[in-house]
Amino acid sequence: MMTMYEQIGGHETLRVVVVVFYRRVLRDPLLAPLFEGFDLARLRAHQAAFLGAVLDGPHVFTGRSMRRAHAGLGVTTDAFDALIAHLAASLVDAGVTAAAASRLTDAAESFRSAIVTAADQP
Description:
Layout: H1 4-8, H2 10-27, H3 40-54, H4 66-70, H5 77-93, H6 98-109, H7 112-115
Helix pairs in contact: 2-3, 2-5, 5-6
């Protein structure tokens, strides 16, 4: 039986998802400042490993905890909502099945409390 990772097209599909996701994020005026000064190639690799692990792919996610990785970044609820929306749109753009897309966005959503570290401004 194929894993969901294999069903969506594996590494190549996730590579497309991650490229499209960061293209969207870096064009978003709310989100782009959060990524200034970061090594985008490294972030893309971590994102692909995370998504691959969620879909039972061969990846083993070995990065820092979500809380530690996002500490001090000042991610707001609005910013996190925008990230989830960009992820969902990127999955659709890459032709990922609805079931896999739901699994990935649900997994990302499960880290909301670890990633959102700042209050939204009124």
